[in-house]
Amino acid sequence: MNFTIHLHQKTNQNLNHTPMKNLIIASFIVLGLSTVQAQNVTLNVKLRPIQTLVINTAQRSVDLEYASKDDYKNGVTSTNTDHLNIYSTGGFEVKVKSATASMTNGGKTINTNSIQLTPTAGTAALTGATYTALNLSADDKVLVTSTTGGVDKKISVAYKGAGADAYLDNYIAGQTPTVYTTELTYTIVSK
Question: For the chain, is the Cβ count within 10 Å smaller at the N or the C terminus?
Fold first, then answer.
């Protein structure tokens, strides 16, 4: 009977020091001694200004045609819906200028500042935009200002020629019609 008890005690000693228990204890020691290393990365998001302005291809030529007494008296307007298409990252200005201060034909002259441009919101309107009617000039003038950007935003522009018979003496006999021409340049800049 003594023999059995002694064997049982020896078995309990072996259970207290099993290889699995030694492995767990060794793992805690190793983990406790190891250090954690970290590295940092700097992430930069770099935004550059992008502005595009596209003139409606069907409206690249605008005609102000005087064909009646009322046209000479009241002036003529050509309204161009969705004339300009804008893409801008952030606020911007749209400017316009004429290539010349006056248009000539056969020694006669029409001043470009007798033509008025009136911008309005197009079918895809800009949020918070300011539209400014202006008379053409050979110098850049601000037509539209926006504090926010936009994607495929539209601006309509009405061109109005002078009334009050201002062009009455500008017709040249034998020319049907007499044509006065200038090129307009629209630009967009970030603001």
Answer: N
